[in-house]
Amino acid sequence: MREFEGGERNIEGTVREEKIGGVTRREFLELGVAATLGVGAGEIAWAADTKSEVPRRTLGRTGEKISMVGLGGYHIGSQKDEQESIRIIRTALDSGINFLDNCWDYNGGASEERMGKALRDGYRQRAFVMTKIDGRTKKAAAQQIEESLRRLQTDHIELLQFHEIIRMEDPDRVFAAGGGMEAAVEAQKAGKVRYIGFTGHKSPDIHFKMLETADAHKFHFDSVQMPLNVMDAHYNSFGKKVLPVLVKKEIGVLGMKPMGAGIILRSKTVEPVECLHYAMSLPTSVVITGCDSVTLVEQAVSAAKSFKPLSETQVATLLAKTKAAAQNGEFEGYKTTTNFDGTAHNPQWLG
Question: For 182-236, how does the pLDDT look when each residue is reduced to its tens digit (9 = 90+)?
Fold first, then answer.
């Protein structure tokens, strides 16, 4: 991984010792935030279609314009009343959010089923739909793609992602002969899938392994999804290690867990809008946030519409407030425990 290490050395070479918001510039740069705010920011982070109610950004080299905030898929399947789930999705679309996240395994398929119903009556044409599959084998992946299409009531998915790349063996399994990537590429050739990406929340090193494996197979991912938040910046950081690489490779950056599924808020160090604005200030194509109520959709839309890129001082102030709480990963259980690992608890999903 010499390329990645070299990038970090260049960053560290510019260090000076003045303080920014209570953090020395050396600490600030070592967190990688200055790099991610600067690298490609003019083209990626701040590019927006101001005619939309929610500003839009470009998804990597695809040229697709997606809302800078996206609706998380897990939470929309958790309502007791299915009609409330539909109302949440349609409120998001009516408010200018066009990026919809989902997954084959969310809530036993209910998240996709409810989204499929919400996308009736002309809403499908307004949505950029992303869903994920767990299958590592061609057979399992193909079956899950077909189930997702059926549940979502659509003949194509804009973006399909391999879910939970959280084990070092996952990349090799996906790209092996008879692996899941064969099913994804075949679906893409058949017009059932437009773009292909992957997600993971465990370790930047596993992301590197997936990217390196793709390079070895001469495959270019269209997107990568990972946690990007005020805690990540301090502990086993995707933002520090992976984000600059994705910008360089022109891969769309999908930031997730801006509030760590709400757990970061329990630290009492930051407010929801601060969390969203921090993630939006990174060169993300979209920041995906879970909304289990219309009120939270409105909060996300308001944060996007009021967004102005945070200055280095503002970023450093947020990092100073979260530094102590973030040290051991207590508020990032998806990195340090298996509590968030659906495929660890259901290995049969992998195929």
Answer: 999 999 999 999 999 999 999 999 999 999 999 999 999 999 999 999 999 999 9
Long-range interactions of 261-266: CB distance < 8 A, separation 24+: 261/290, 261/334, 261/340, 262/290, 263/331, 263/332, 263/333, 264/229, 264/230, 264/231, 264/322, 264/331, 264/332, 266/331
Q: What are phi and psi of 57, to 5 degrees?
A: -125, 170
Tell me the C-alpha distance between 243 and 116, whole Å. 32
Beta bridge partners of residue 286, listed in sequence order: 254
Helices 294-305 and 272-281, packing angle to 10 deg? 50
Chain segment 267-319, per-residue pLDDT in tens: 999 999 999 999 999 999 999 999 999 999 999 999 999 999 999 999 999 99
Given a contact cutoff of 8 angstroms between Cβ atoms, the answer to whether 160 and 183 are in contact is: no
How do 19-20 and 23-24 pair as beta strands?
antiparallel
Q: Report how far residue 275's alpha carbon sits from residue 76's, in angstroms, rounded to the nearest whole number.
A: 20
Provide the 3-class DSSP secondary structure of residue 287: strand
R_g of the chain, CA atoms, integer Å: 19
pTM value?
0.88
